[in-house]
Amino acid sequence: FDYPNEKEFTVAACSPSGQAVAVGSFNRIRTYTWAPRKMTWEETPPKEIQNLYTVTALAWKRDGSRVACGSLCGSVELFESVIKRTVWKNKFELTYVGASQVLVKP
């Protein structure tokens, strides 16, 4: 990955499963996910937030379903990190948060 026209990365946080890494910089959050079949990290489209300024803190929820982002100006943004969400037999909500991680809620 090469970003010669962008500001430096300021903070990074690994997901609880180790299958994703969120990286913060100026007005932007990038997420990289591990692709086990290819044995490489893949970049998802970056999330650009105008006037966010420098990202100073990133933290994942323990189950890997959300990422909290703090900025230099004191704002806090919360993002869902969900691949897919379905309902099974009208009883359980299945939330896929990683290639091998599923959250089950009644």
UniProtKB/TrEMBL annotation:
It comes from Lygus hesperus (Western plant bug). The lineage of its organism: Eukaryota, Metazoa, Ecdysozoa, Arthropoda, Hexapoda. Keywords: Cell projection, Cilium, Repeat, TPR repeat, WD repeat. The keyword Repeat applies. Belongs to the IFT172 family. One of its GO terms (biological process) is intraciliary transport. It is found in: Cell projection, Cilium. GO terms for cellular component: axoneme; ciliary basal body; intraciliary transport particle B. This is Intraflagellar transport protein 172. InterPro entries: WD40/YVTN_repeat-like_dom_sf, WD40_repeat_dom_sf.
